[in-house]
Amino acid sequence: MSLRILLLSVAVLCCLILVNESIVAAEKPNILMILTDDHGYGDVSTYHQSDVQTPAIDRLAAGGMLFTRMRSNCTVCSPARAAILSGRYPDRVGVPGVIRTQPLDSWGYFDPRVPTLANHLRNAGYDTAIVGKWHLGLESPNLPNERGFDFFQGFLGDMMESYATHLRHGQNYMRRNGAVIDPQGHATDLFTQWSVDYLRERSAAKKPFFLYLAYNAPHFPIEPPAEWLERVKQRAPAMDSKRASNVAFVEHLDHSIGRVLETLKTTGLEANTLVVFTADNGGSLPHAQNNDPWRDGKQSHYDGGLRVPFAVRWPGVVAAGSRSDYAGQTFDVCPTFLEAAGAVPPAEMDAVSLLPILRGGNPPAALRDLYFVRREGGPVYGGKSYEALIRGDWKLLQNNPYSPLELYDLKNDPREQTNVIAQRPRLARELETALRVHIQRGGATPWQRPEK
User: Fold this and answer.
1) Domain boundary pick from 324, 358, 392
2) Tens of pLDDT along 309-332?
3) Which residue in 18, 258, 319, 433 has a CA-CA distance of 20 to 30 Å to 242?
4) Rg (CA), the chain
5) Residues pairing with 131 in the sheet
């Protein structure tokens, strides 16, 4: 073989490799995860007639698959987020309760040894970003840029005391990567604009991206922009003022989500972007949020605290207008995203991929127990944990560490009105045994930061 032919063969081989790499890269979808905060199932109008209007979320659901039986991994913020980002039950990564800005009232420490969804996707060739609420640690080694995210712009803390000032206990927790920032404007508008900016930047790049957009809204304080509240008052002048404020708050949030989704469209990213919308837990009833038709709300292991809106859009893969009644948990997005990206989920994940369902196939055949845990302080909880377990149609639960266990038949009593534990003692003992195994496994992971 002459040198010229050899060089030509090498050049052709290199071109084939480059073309193959381009094809593989093109097959990897961009991933956008939109997570809202304390957003009740009943405060998304696609599920049933409501006094709140969420046209952007409704369009997203209509363009893909709407899940009707998804539950969060926890009835409060930090554990739900830790589960989503790890694919593991929250107590197994050190976050059985809320991580707060006051150490004496903080009930979790996100295990820095556990790789996150962002770590895995970055290893799979993704640019990774989080915009919005972090709530998994205020200092090293648990800052977003140390947990797999290339870019972070948002809020480190648990909640804002005002969406205008963005402070918590008088402290500024707004950051752009490691830098303290002091942006002006409503937090929902800020997070939306930062996401729009990020998407526009990524539209010019060949590398796929993972954007985790975690809004603070509609977590209290309920602070809708004045013009949005006025619209609701004009439309429904008889509506209770507390409820009107929440409706306006949610509708402003929905409009903001619509801006982000519109940016996907105008930048040409929409066709190759997998979008998931969900919430971290149910709505807060004292703040006039709506979890209908489910019982109770945030902090409760009744389904009003756990059932969350959940919709997936993936053009060309997920059939528009489809629905699923698969009973999953929000951390199932973790292996789903990894498989969509061509990565293999680690064996230690507790979550189950939704990819077969999204592609129109059958849900996993094996019956999976759904486990829930929350640890909390104060006189009601005493720093102890309380748990729940769902096996098929049966649900065993506590709603504080000092109350007796309750048992519900979800098939015949989906609104959890009749406690049947006295009538089904054998079944209750069986579920209690399974629950103890989960508690033991969670107890292997420390949930307080080691002393320096």
Assistant:
1) 358
2) 999 999 999 999 999 999 999 999
3) 258
4) 22
5) 153, 213
Q: Do residue 348 and residue 386 come from a single domain?
A: no
Phi/psi-derived region of residue 268, left when phi > 0, alpha when psi is between -120 and 50, beta in every other case: left
Q: Number of helices (H) and strands (E) in the chain: give both, helices first.
A: 12, 16
Do the domain assignments include residue 11? no
DSSP code, position 97: B
Tell whether 56 and 190 lie within a shared domain: yes
* Helix axes of 333-340 and 77-86: crossing angle, nearest 10 degrees: 30
Residues 139 and 169 in one domain: yes
User: Tens digits of per-residue pLDDT, 369-412?
Assistant: 999 999 999 999 999 999 999 999 999 999 999 999 999 999 99
Q: Rounded to whole angstroms, how far apart are CA atoms 190 and 216?
A: 11
Instruction: Examine the domain organization and report whether 311 and 400 are in the same domain.
Output: no
Amino acid at 342: G
Residues 251 and 298 in one domain: yes
Q: Which two tokens stand for residue 314?
A: 């993936």
Share of the chain above pLDDT 90, in %: 92
Domain match, 298 and 429 both: no
In a domain, 450, yes or no: no
pLDDT at 21 over 80: no
Distance separating the N- and C-terminal Cα atoms of the chain: 67
Q: What is the pLDDT of residues 256-268, one digit of tens each?
A: 999 999 999 999 9
Number of domains the chain contains: 2
Under 8 Å between Cβ of 116 and 85 = yes
Would you say residue 91 lies in a domain? yes
pLDDT band at 365 (very low <50, low <70, confident <90, very high): confident
Residue 451 has pLDDT above 90, yes or no: no
Backbone angles phi, psi at 389, to 5 degrees: -145, 135
For residue 435, what is the domain's CATH number?
A: 3.30.1120.10
The full DSSP string for 17-67 is HHHHHHHHHHHSPEEEEEEESS--GGGSTTTS--SS--HHHHHHHHTSEEE
Each residue of 419-448: b (16+ CB within 10 Å) or e? Answer: eebeeeeebbeebeeebeebeeebeebebe
pLDDT digits 0-9 by tens, 72-122: 999 999 999 999 999 999 999 999 999 999 999 999 999 999 999 999 999
235-240: average pLDDT: 97
Report the distance separating Cα 241 and Cα 233, nearest Å: 8
